Structures are given as structure tokens and as C-alpha cells.
Amino acid sequence: MRFSSIAYMHWAKTRGADCEVLLSRSGMMPPPAEWLEPVSPSEALQYLEAYGDMPLREAVAARYRAHPDQILLANGTSEANFLICAALLRPEDLVAVEMPCYEPFVRVVEALGATVLPLNRRPEEGYRFSLEQLEEYLRAGVRLVILSNLHNPTGRALDPALLEEAARRIEAARAYLLVDEVYLDYLGERAPASAFRLGPTTISTSSLTKVYGLGALRAGWAIASSGIVSRAYAIRDHLGVVAAGPAMLYSRAAFGVLDRIGTWSRDRAARGRAVIDRVLATEPSLSWVPPDAGIVGLIELPDGLDDRKLSDHLEQRHRTLVTPGDFFGAPGTVRVGFGGEPAETEEGLRRLIQGIHELTGA
Hints:
By secondary structure, the chain is of the alpha/beta class. It has helices at 7-14, 41-44, 54-64, 76-88, 103-111, 131-139, 160-172, 226-236, 245-256, 258-281, 307-318, 342-360; strands at 21-22, 71-75, 94-99, 115-122, 128-129, 144-148, 176-180, 202-207, 219-223, 287-288, 296-300, 320-321, 323-324, 333-337.
């Protein structure tokens, strides 16, 4: 295995310390701390089960109507995705990855020695993917297909019928489908059942981060067949012994109030979305394919404007951070997050528009 730098990860971890306004947030702010039951020091210092805290595995399984043996606990969705890919892929395998995409999808596949084939999600088609292109890749011997639902970076939902047909064809080709569902719960009651229910070769991943604002707990998971989960836990043996006990205990507590947090989060998302819609309606130079839900979206920039140059300009001149779309394979766009306070979102958009005018001479 050879690990290259993940440009987006490095950028996200090192930029914005001096910024006043963050349009770069990809997750919800934390909910009120008093909603979670406190963990006593004596509990916090106890070792939990080595292969994932069983009460937490049972809580995840109950929520998704799965068996605890089908639950892989991980440090966030990114680690869950890594472990599933490592459990499935062999050097020189072919992997179809949605494009635009979350960059770690590509870098993990490459690090494992496999080859990435772009499965295009086109803006003119509402960021759907083509079954014809998928079928072409399956005939070529693709072993794994990677999608996100809601799509990161656009917030678009996969059509359930399209996803179901894709899962059927992938299973028939004896390949696997991995669906990152970390944003899916923003759909609330409109959300379809988790993709893992589409068949034995479909895996879903998620966490308490993007929707529930509990990123500090690093509570992620995958839902897969027990055989895949066992292989993934064996790989995790190379990364450490046990998970952090306090985080697991607080994650258990979170599952007891998850619906309450979800309602709170979707309300905040709706208020941020209203600000975006209102501002974009009055700014003819900007457009987007509206997200179906969530707190991120991909805004198209005026022709010829470099998204990285704009991001640097906003950070240096306006103390505002916005994520270049180039990190997702979508140059000429910026991903904006609107999970913060509505006033911050509105001010960030004002500065974004001002920066665009300064660079374009509009």
C-alpha cells in the first residue's frame, strides 16, 4: 500500500484558523450538551469490548433493523469506508467511483492498489448517474461501486428506483456496492431505507457527525454481511486495540435522543437553506442544482473564475473560508455549507459575492 496526500483533508485541517466566517463547514453544529446523559468517570475509564462496544452495535442494529454481527463500528464514516474498501479490494481491481466525489474515496482506492473509473454524476441531469455507464463498467469487471446518498458535494438524493436497479445489476455481476449515507437522515421521513437492505453485496456507511453534530465522538459504522464485517474488524486490528470508552458511552446516550437531535438539526438546515435560496435568487451570476436536503451545496461560479484562487482571495482578504469544488473533481464551483447560524451564512454569502466581483471586475 502506498498512501498519497489527500489534498482536501490537508486543506480542511490547516485552513481557516483566522477566519471570521466559515462557509466550509460540512457538518452540523453540536446539539445542546444537556440532551446527552453524562458519563461518570468510573464508567469512562473502563475498557469496552475490543470488537466494538456491543450495546452500541445493538443500538445501531436496532435503528437499521439489522443484526449486531452486521455492524462494523469505526472512527467516523471515513474510517468505515476505508475498512470496507480494504476488506473487499485486491491490487489491480477496478472500482467505479462517483464523480464529483469526496476525495478520500479516490485516494483510498488508489492506496489499496486498485484503479478508479469515474462514474459521472452530471449536473445537467440533476447529478444522476447513468445505468449505461455502470453496465459498461460491470462488463469490464468492476469489483466495487462507490456512491454517496445524499451526494457529497451537491446534496442531491439518489432516485430510489435507480439505486435499486443499480444494486440488482451489481449483485448479478458478483460485485459490491458501497453507499455512504452520512447525510441521508437530513431527508427525515422522506428518507428511504438504508441501502444495505437492497441485497447481500450492498454496504452502507454513516455516522453521528454530519446530521447529528456529534463529530467529536467519532462514532461511525458500516452495515454489511457478517463475513465482510469480520474481515474489516481483522484489518482494524492493525490500527489499534479498543475504541475510546468515553466516546462509545456518549454515543450510546446519543442513540437514545437521536430523533430529537435529528429534528433540531433539520430545522437548522432549513433556516440556512432559506438564506441561500433568498440570496441566490437575487444574484444572477451564481446558480446551483438545488440540494434535496442537507447543509451543503455546489455553487457554479462565473465562467473562467478559478475556484481555488477565489477561495484563497476570500480567506486572505475577507477572512471567509469556502471550499473549492476542484477538491471534488468539480472545478469552477465552490461547495458552501449552511449549517451554521443563518446570520453567519448570510454574511458569508455577501463576502463570497463581493470577492467574485473583485476578481471578475463586475
